[in-house]
Amino acid sequence: MTLDLREFFQATNPDKTLFVDNTAKDQNYYIDFSPVRGGHVIKELSNQIAFWSPDTPTCQLFTGHVGCGKSTELLQLKAQLEREGFHIVYFESSHNLEMADVDVSDILLAIAARVSESLDRVEQNRSHNPQVILKQVAKLLQTEIELTADTSVPGLGNVAASTAGDFSVNVGIPGIGEVKVSKEEGLSFVAPLIGKITARAKASPEFRNKLRGYLEPRTNGILEAINSELIEPGIKRLKDDGKKGLVVIVDNLDRIDSSAKPWGRNQQEYLFVDRGEQLRSLNCHLIYTMPLALRFSNEFAPLTQRFKNPTVLPMVWVQLRDGSECEQGMALLRQMVLARAFPDLEAEQRLHQMTEIFDTPETLDRLCRISGGHVRNLLRLLNNAIQKEMGLPISRNSLEEVILDYKNALKLAVDKSEWALLRRVADEKKVTGDEGYEQLIRSMFVYEYRDRQGSWFVINPILAEAEEFKS
């Protein structure tokens, strides 16, 4: 079998999310790691919606290390819930929001735009009344918009609209420009108008502050409008069409920066604790990804008063709790690598082709062990090794050079006190709510694993090989 080097390189791109419901190749790339993650976490999320509360809104938090596979698993959840008969709105919030500066109104507007856009696609054969649409937009923006030639929108600028067949809405934003939306851009104004407003807000701190200053005092009104104008009538129409309900999955909120708000509050704690009640107030099924560090924050108890305990996607077992190698985890990691080269082969057939990719089976095992079961880091090391080798098979020397480069870069971020904490984690296999441990988790210096006994923690294997850790 001839292996295309460039195609294999692209398939190992660590930033590529597997859209398993869209392409057969992505489905063949997918490996089910649930037997070696300590539980079927996606099944748990699905059951909460489809089995326990299909007709009652739910809100669940999903977390784990950045790069551990959350997006891929959420897309598996999307496909599963669609098979159950639900309409799913999935989006990556980082495409809509400036992750270093986020407020609740930003998230709510992004959800409103994506829900409206998705329902528009479902209802493309329905007729839409311009006056009803404009009234809907007015409620979402918490202002009065009338069908006149020149209507003022407080805090935003001017809106002009006509009743012609190809009508449009123009929102002028002082000092920035004008947002114009025509009927051709969407079956309703909601998605394209709010989409353009949030795009401007993401790009411009000045506009973001102006918009937020106007919307934040009106957050409860915005929530009521999203529920009454979008979600509730949308669910009714979905059920009329035979669907069971609406599920909104907001991915990448776990990437929200931990920097302090102007008044000193940690942004992550502000959003999920202080404003958590508003995040969960939309009348549909909601799943938000949450920063893993919040599990180790002093604010975790208040967080669980607003939400149920977050569902955690841990690392793939490379070793068991007692330090012995986990053969099942290693076998599945080998398959993840080999599937990127031979997606159309059965698992056993892939193993027979292993030496087309690596000089020896031991080189592949070295890659799997040093990854610590972090799937994105495994792919990153593999992708870099392909570049280093400039061909196949990948030699052990090329892989070791890549590992050394990564280790030298990673340990530059570890200070003396953190090396001491890392040694303590290695001895005790646990972390506490101390701020230093939060930093270890955020920086991926420490990985979390789970089994039936609960969680245990292990040093990133690359750092465990550093002289600074051993000394």
Report on this model:
The protein is α/β, with parallel strands linked by helices. Helix content is 48%, strand content 12%. It contains 21 helices and 11 strands. It has helices at residues 5-11, 24-29, 41-52, 70-83, 104-122, 130-140, 190-203, 205-215, 219-240, 267-274, 276-279, 300-306, 327-341, 347-352, 361-371, 375-389, 396-411, 416-428, 435-442, 461-464, 467-470, and strands at 59-63, 87-92, 151-153, 157-161, 168-173, 177-182, 246-251, 285-289, 311-312, 446-451, 454-459. The strands form 3 sheets. The chain has a 5-stranded parallel sheet, with helices on both faces. Strands 3-4-5-6 form a 4-stranded antiparallel sheet, covered by helices on one side. Strand 5 and strand 6 (177-182) form a beta hairpin. Helix 5 runs antiparallel to helix 7, helix 15 packs across helix 16 and helix 16 packs across helix 17. The longest helix has 22 residues, at 219-240.
Question: Quick recap of the structure?
Answer:
By secondary structure, the chain is an alpha/beta fold.
Query: What is the number of helical segments per DSSP (H or I, 4+ residues)?
Result: 21
> Radius of gyration from the CA trace?
25 Å
Helix coverage percent of residues? 40-55%
Q: Approximately how much beta-strand content do the residues carry?
A: 5-15%
- What gap, in angstroms, lies between the N and C termini? 47 Å
- Biggest sheet, open or closed, and with what strands and sense? 5 strands, parallel
* Low confidence ranges: 144-166, 172-177
Alpha-beta classification: alpha/beta
Q: What spatial form do the alpha-carbon principal axes imply? A: globular
Q: Strand order, biggest sheet?
A: 2-7-8-1-9
What is the total tally of β strands?
11
- Round the mean pLDDT to the nearest integer and report it: 86
